[in-house]
């Protein structure tokens, strides 16, 4: 059965000489600006080589981020789902690749037969066979190879989708941690405010007992304190919700994660924006859209290959004997070779419709790709604009907090001296609290916009990390 031992090169020789139906893939051009519009006035960061790549969250110097962010890629359930989808896509590549090679099989049979008219042992007939068979449909028109290209590009799109889901979950976790830290600092701020209001209430109560101030001052001071206490209690709800979200993003049950109170905000890092063209390599969602284009382009070749004849080859080699004695004798050697050719002459427009549908799907993929690129540019521009504006706002608010602190101190001293009523104190304290909370919110928003910018720039991801689906045989985790 020598046919069963032929090397792969023999089976592929005819294949390699064949043509490839459909157009070869070329990435469509997209118009990209040389620089971001919002970069003028933007303080340039240090060179990218000095900043964290994959572990970008370390730039914020927050121990909670350092502990939980690595868990996202292995424990987050959305990421695990996309990982399973990627493994499925890799398996489909292997299935498509198998069609390039022949199918080899072996069969055996044995029978014992006796005629109905006689019971003589001589009338019993023993027969048997051992046959090896091989069948192959050479990919003369490239349909299988285009199908491999389609599945490979789809697998790479799935891999990029996995990377994008991981990055999105990491950004969401960082945003939740920042929200929690801002809430903790706001809690500290309100605790200080409550302590100050309690001190003011004691002063007003002493004056009320002495009869030196109207009773309304005491009511106003008590109401001011109670409102601050109410706001402080309400922050507990927000903190709990942030903590629950952090736990789920890290793949934990909410009750399994206890996050201690922190008095410090994460550090505000500088992020190098680079140039717009780098987004094509750094954004996994752009890579996924580009790979989907490649898959749809290959699907055109699969559809066009249906116009050409189907050719299949088959061979059988083995032994067959009746009677069974001496089965493997050379005299009982049998073999056969065969070839089938088939061509569809009329299909009512089915093939032309499939080609038209494939081309339309490719055009849609091009539009989607360009739309994703435009959206990416918009995201980065929004981040840069927000960070630029918030940096200027933070400077003004620093001065406002300083002035409000000075004004509140003066107002309370004047009230104790009897030169102003308590309304002046209330207004000054309200201005101070609002200024400090606004400054805190702006600082938190700067952190959130920085996280958003890192995510919109692709984090530390690059298209260089994408694998060749035909070479990935084992799970990546």
Strand order of the largest sheet: 1-2-3-4
CATH topology: Outer membrane efflux proteins (OEP)
Structural class: alpha+beta
| Beta strand count | 4
Q: Beta-strand level of the residues, as a percent range? A: 5-15%
Structure description:
58% of the residues lie in helices and 10% in strands. The model is unreliable at 1-7 and 41-52 (pLDDT under 50). The chain has one domain (35-99, 145-307, 352-465): Up-down Bundle (Outer membrane efflux proteins (OEP)), CATH 1.20.1600. The chain has 477 residues and is of the alpha+beta class. It starts with 7 loop residues before the first helix and ends in a 21-residue tail after the last helix.
Task: Provide a concise account of the structure shown.
By secondary structure, the protein is α+β, with helices and mostly antiparallel strands. Helices cover 58% and strands 10% of the residues. Helix 7 packs antiparallel against helix 8 (350-417).
What labels describe this entry?
single chain; 477 residues; alpha+beta; Outer membrane efflux proteins (OEP); four-stranded antiparallel β-sheet; disordered N terminus
């Amino acid at each position: 059965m020598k046919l069963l031992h032929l090397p792969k090169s023999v089976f592929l020789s005819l294949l390699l000489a064949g043509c490839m139906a459909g157009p070869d893939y070329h990435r469509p051009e997209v118009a990209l600006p040389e620089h971001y519009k919002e970069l003028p006035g933007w303080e340039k960061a240090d060179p990218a080589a000095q900043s964290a790549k994959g572990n970008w969250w370390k730039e914020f110097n927050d121990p909670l981020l350092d502990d939980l962010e690595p868990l996202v890629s292995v424990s987050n359930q959305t990421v695990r789902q996309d990982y399973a989808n990627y493994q499925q896509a890799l398996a489909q590549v292997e299935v498509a690749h198998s069609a390039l090679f022949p199918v080899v099989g072996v069969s055996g049979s044995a029978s014992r037969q006796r005629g109905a008219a006689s019971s003589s042992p001589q009338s019993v007939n023993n027969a048997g066979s051992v046959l090896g068979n091989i069948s192959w449909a050479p990919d003369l028109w490239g349909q299988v190879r285009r199908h491999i290209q389609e599945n490979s590009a789809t697998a790479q799109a799935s891999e990029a989708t996995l990377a994008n889901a991981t990055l999105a979950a990491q950004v969401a976790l960082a945003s939740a941690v920042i929200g929690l830290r801002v809430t903790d600092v706001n809690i500290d701020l309100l605790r200080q405010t409550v302590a100050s209001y309690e001190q003011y209430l004691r002063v007003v109560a002493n004056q009320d007992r002495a009869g030196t101030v109207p009773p309304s001052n005491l009511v106003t001071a008590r109401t001011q304190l109670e409102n601050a206490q109410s706001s402080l209690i309400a922050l507990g709800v927000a903190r709990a919700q942030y903590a629950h979200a952090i736990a789920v993003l890290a793949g934990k049950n909410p009750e399994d994660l206890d996050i201690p109170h922190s008095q410090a905000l994460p550090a505000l890092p500088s992020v190098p924006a680079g140039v717009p063209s780098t987004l094509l390599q750094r954004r996994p969602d752009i890579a996924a859209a580009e790979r989907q284009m490649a898959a749809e382009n290959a699907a055109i070749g699969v559809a066009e290959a249906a116009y050409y004849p189907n050719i299949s080859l088959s061979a059988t080699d083995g032994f067959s004997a009746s009677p069974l004695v001496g089965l493997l004798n050379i005299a009982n050697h049998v073999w056969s070779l065969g070839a089938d050719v088939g061509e569809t002459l009329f299909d009512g427009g089915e093939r032309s419709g499939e080609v038209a549908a494939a081309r339309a799907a490719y055009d849609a993929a091009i539009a989607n790709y360009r739309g994703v690129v435009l959206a990416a540019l918009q995201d980065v521009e929004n981040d840069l604009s927000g960070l630029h504006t918030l940096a200027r706002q933070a400077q003004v608010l620093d001065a406002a907090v300083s002035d409000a602190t000075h004004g509140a101190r003066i107002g309370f001293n004047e009230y104790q001296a009897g030169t102003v009523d308590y309304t002046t104190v209330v207004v000054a304290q309200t201005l101070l609290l609002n200024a400090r909370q606004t400054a805190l919110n702006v600082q938190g928003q700067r952190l959130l916009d920085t996280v958003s910018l890192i995510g919109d720039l692709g984090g530390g991801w690059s298209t260089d990390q994408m694998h060749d689906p035909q070479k990935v045989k084992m799970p990546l985790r």
